[in-house]
Amino acid sequence: MNWNIKKSKKEVLVLVAMFLIFSVSTYCVLFDATVFGLISSDNVKNNQAVIGQIQSLSNDTRHKDSKSFSWGEAESGTKIRNGDRLFTGKQSTAHVKLNKGGELEIGENSMVNFTDVGGQPVADLSFGKVQLAVDGNIKIAINGKVQNIEGKKAKLDIFVDSKRKTHMRIVKGQAEVNSRSVEPRKVAAQDTGISPSSELEFLAPKTETIKIEPKINLTQSPPLLSYTDHLEDFYILEDQGLLLRNERRAEVPYKFKFKWATQGLVKNVEGETSNNANFVSPVEHFVSEAGVFETQKLFIGDNFWRLRASNIDWSSPQKLTLVSAALKVDPPRLVASQSEYYLLTPKMNINIGIQTKNPESQKELTDFVVELSNTPSFPLPQTQARLITKRQFPIFLTQEQDVYLRVRGLNHAKEITGYSEVLRLQIREAKMPLPPVLAENGYKLYPEQSLDVEWSKAENAQSYEVELRDANQNLIETQRLDKTTHEFKISKIGKYNVQVRSIDRFGRKSPSSQALVSIEPHLTAPPLIARKEAAPVASPVRKTSSVSSLSTTEKIENPNNLNQNFASSSVELQGGGSTTTSSQSIASSAGSPPENATIGLQVMHWLHHSGFEGLLETKVAGMTPASSEVSPVQAEARYRYRWTIPWNLFSNIQSTQISLIGGYEYYRNGTTGPFSPGYDMLKTGVGLNFPVAKRWDSGGEILVGRGFDSSSEYQLSGNLNYFMRSDWSIGVGYRVHLFEAGSNSSAPSGGIPYREGYGEAFSVLRKTY
Q1: Which listed residue, of 44, 361, 649, 651, carries a Cα 20 to 30 Å from 724's Cα?
Q2: Cα-based torsion angle of the residue sequence 471, 472, 477, 483 in order, rounded to the nearest 10 degrees
Q3: Mean pLDDT along residues 219-225
Q4: For residue range 243-302, what is the model confidence (pLDDT) as tens digits?
Q5: 688: number of Cβ within 10 Å
Q6: Are 738 and 576 in contact (CB under 8 A)?
């Protein structure tokens, strides 16, 4: 093979310019921080006023800077500015010293906003519990309401209960709130200067001066309580639909009255409820004088409660058990017209019906929850849930797979039944029938001879269509047959064409196989000529003289333009490197982003204007220490519809191809690092492809994606290929993805908001056909 190709100056200049453009684009995609700097604003300088500083912390304490896109791990010594937030998780605390005097000890499961309230930068308790140490005057906000507190070496406990009601207790020293003293008793609204609608309740501090021994007698709780399962015990309601919980809700809405009787000088009684006898978090606190407290929620299973007042120790815990059960109505069932379906279009619509077993269920059940999975065990990551208000609904499928569905019924109160039996649907790809192979590719006959046409059985064919046409392609005879032979009677001298197509069970036809027929007068005996190698046939056929060199399927190659097949069907092997960054990885890692070696296979098959494309890509090796944080597997299926424009600035082949693209992307990440665990995406966009000079072609794509959970993605890609022969080429390409999660299921453990960027450069070995 001669590789010394003589180039014109114009072609050399075009190739150099395109190489420079590709190099700069690849550098920007992989190494320029400008592209990925859009993902996170964590590095933006914060000029807000300093309100305080973190002195110490423990366990799970998180800090969100006012200029940051995401939460990060809090650190001792961090300055707290106007607009910042602090959050403490389970069994976690944080100690903050305020610049204008006072210190905050933030308890577990609490959040404090440091923000302007009424034009004043203050600490604002959103939920949870804090202990305020004050020696002087300080302003603090509770749920956006500013309180002026003046204390003398005082400590105050402040907490917000489950009803969003705020309680305050003086633990040490003396203090005044809103210019009123807090006495060691429950203070009425008129004593504090707080309006009767205020949510603040002041509780007496512990004291050692009470000498009468008070006593509390707890009323015995019932041993068992019953609860009917509710929709929100298993699912989270979102604007886009339902999201399955990782596990069923443990704490449920349930009204129950705790009762007790007191003796002696007992006024305020403090109580606690929990799901454990040691009263370790979670714990609900309450204070009451009435001898009764009505809770709004209980735990499924065992619940414990205890009381104390003044200097009395905690009472022995009382236990009650809440037992849950599904709604006592027969579950509905799912029905489909058949159990096996074939994909005849890129997107298949199947209608599923919901039936109830008896009139009682028909009347009781108003809505339904349908779960769909590709696994009969319905594992959480592979299961989707939908709230259905009618007794029939569609599902849309795009690939060969088994689909499993089950349903639960809901009544007006959103109480939920048990599961129905599982409905299995088998979705199979309906492969197009292949063309039959003719035993002869040409015939020469005399008028009195019959034309016997025979062909081999074709894959996926149920019947065959055979046609006889004249030289002007006018139809003379057509037959639909179950057999693989047919006899024509032709008496008129001339040229004819025989065409045979396969037809499958769905009525789809294959491309035709053709043979030329020549009916000639008796001049001389017809010469014997070589026959084309034919596929084996089942039965003998009457032999006639055949004409060689009549096949019209042979391609004629133009040696001057090796890239003339740039728009043909192709198979590509891709290998390269990728890098990934995200809003959480930028916030949590100071090292370099993960870089991985990848390999992929891409197939593009054209049928006239329609094209079907598949891409599979995966990681094969890590190249940086952070590579273990991401291990992607990506698969895409696309449909294209193309137009050819008779214009090209870069080649004497006056042709440029433009295509509209629609498809589906499946992405999964096998690690638990700061990157998306996976998503399913529908994508659409436009593609461009055109030849360059005589041995090159180039192109690219712009795509926009929308996930099933409202995630979004923007993709840009490009390529440049060199044809070594008309059917073999090598090249290079790049891809850039910008992704934003639409729900916690497509975001890492930190949740939304979350954004991710992905860049890849790769080389290509391509075979066209």
Answers
A1: 649
A2: 60
A3: 80
A4: 999 999 999 999 999 888 876 556 678 899 999 999 988 888 998 887 889 999 999 999
A5: 14
A6: no
Q: Which helix (H) or strand (E) holds 412?
A: none
Q: Which of 232, 181, 170 is nearest to 207 (CA)?
A: 170
Query: Are the CB atoms for 577 and 761 separated by under 8 Å?
Result: yes
63 closest CA partner among 585, 582, 588: 588
Give the C-alpha distances (Å, rounded to integers) separating 576 from 208, 326, 478, 610, 733: 76, 53, 53, 29, 9
Tokens representing 274 are 């929990």
Separation CA 645–CA 567 (nearest Å): 12
Residue 21's H or E segment, with its range, is helix 9-31
8-state DSSP, 25 = H
Decide: residue 390, CB within 10 A, 0-12 exposed, 13-18 middle, 19+ buried: exposed
Question: How long a stretch of residues is the chain?
Answer: 769
**Measuring CA to CA, which residue among 105, 66, 113 is closest to residue 87?**
113
Q: Over the Cα atoms of the chain, what is R_g? A: 38
Q: Can you tell me the distance from the alpha carbon of 150 to that of 17, in angstroms, rounded to the nearest whole number?
A: 74
CA 713 – CA 706 distance, rounded (Å): 7
Going by pLDDT thresholds of 50, 70 and 90, the confidence category of residue 351 is very high
Q: Higher model confidence: residue 500 or residue 647?
A: 500
Cβ atoms within 10 Å, residue 417 = 24
Instruction: Write down the mean pLDDT value for the chain.
Output: 81
Position 157: which residue type? D
> Beta 145-160 vs 120-142: how paired, if at all?
antiparallel
Winning range, highest mean pLDDT, from 30-39, 200-209, 698-707:
698-707
- Which residue has tokens 């079907």? 612
Give yes or no for a contact between 700 and 719, defined as CB atoms under 8 angstroms apart.
yes
d(CA 204, CA 266): 12
The residue among 668, 675, 669, 602 whose CA lies nearest residue 638 is: 602
Per-position b or e across 733-751, b if 16+ CB within 10 A of its CB = bbbbbbbbbbbbbbbbebe
pLDDT digits (tens, 9 = 90+) for 372-425: 999 999 998 899 999 999 999 999 988 889 999 999 999 999 999 999 999 999
Residues 593 and 30 sit within 8 Å (Cβ to Cβ): no
Q: Are 639 and 610 in contact (CB under 8 A)?
A: yes
Percent of the chain residues past pLDDT 90, beyond the cut: 40
3-state SS class at 86: strand
- For the stretch 644-687, pLDDT in tens is 888 888 877 768 899 999 999 999 988 877 888 999 999 999 99
Beta strand 200-203 with 166-177 is parallel
Over residues 63-81, mean pLDDT = 84
How many Cα atoms within 13 Å fall on the side-chain side of residue 50?
10
Structural element, H or E, at residue 569: none
Rounded Cα–Cα distance for residues 480 and 488 (Å): 14
Alpha-carbon gap, residue 501 to 511, rounded angstroms: 6
Alpha-carbon separation of residue 356 from 229, 334, 425 (angstroms): 19, 9, 20
What H or E segment, with its residue span, contains residue 688? strand 678-692
150 or 336, which is more confident? 336
Sheet containing 494-503: which strands, arranged edge to edge?
442-445, 513-519, 494-503, 463-470, 475-481
Local structure of 33: helix, strand or coil:
helix
Q: Is 554 buried (19+), middle (13-18) or exposed (0-12) by CB count in 10 A?
A: exposed
Query: Are the C-beta atoms of 569 and 604 separated by less than 8 Å?
Result: yes
Task: Give the separation between CA 475 and CA 691, rounded to whole angstroms.
Answer: 39
